Fold this protein.
Amino acid sequence: MQLKTIQPIHVLYFETQTSFNEISEHIRHVAHALYRDAVKNDLEITGPVYWIYNGADGNPETVFTLTIALPVSPKPELANSEFRTKYLEKFECATDQLYGGWDGFREVYGQLIPAILSNNLTMSGENREIYINLDFENPDRNTTEIQIGILK
């Protein structure tokens, strides 16, 4: 576990209410649409895709806010965009890397959460997954940074 402060990041984003039972309907196509929209609006892409979970508690039926965000350069106006832009706020977190398939999420979260609690830190209710490298044909080549928000 590493503790980090993530500075504000300007993003093009999609936001919805969903649950883990329904989350698969957003995989791949939302990120594709964000990339297309960024290019169409001449935005410089400045980082990998973020999935941000607010209010998710691990229960497959709990409804939470999902934000899928693509870091981009700020631009005053977007032409005919289906998405909006904003700054993600400064984010204090405990983080670790997952190398390989996403079936390893449970293990990484299962190590991070007890480490946070044993260090007397309080979770904020926001978690982020940053998809540094995606390889859908060879999932063992994936690199994902998992960030669990903490209160300071």
Observations:
- Strands lie at 2-6, 9-18, 49-54, 64-71, 84-88, 91-99, 122-133, 143-151.
